Amino acid sequence: MSVEGIWDLSVSTPIGRIKAVVELRREGGVLTGVAHGAGEEVPLVAVVLDSGRLTWHQAITKPLRLNLAFDMTVDGDTMKGTSKAGRLPASKVTGERRTARAAER
What we know:
Elements: E1 5-13, E2 16-27, E3 30-37, E4 40-43, E5 45-50, E6 53-60, E7 66-75, E8 78-85, E9 91-97, H1 100-104
């Protein structure tokens, strides 16, 4: 299964819906990535794909300083799951991979 590409994510948080973009790529056999959102770019840490389950961690500073843990299920060009920040309740996350045609716009 390939998860490489650009993904548009929507995170339903207690303070409203947050849009983010995640770029995933494979470098030397290792899955890496970055996330863009709220005017910042942050690296993804410990990116793991295991039988359709994709997990990673990232630290953000906007709108709050948080360490997030994502746990997603990938199905083709869509993903869904949760983002958890410490003791806060998990937020629902949905994502869609950009197609080559959409990326050209």
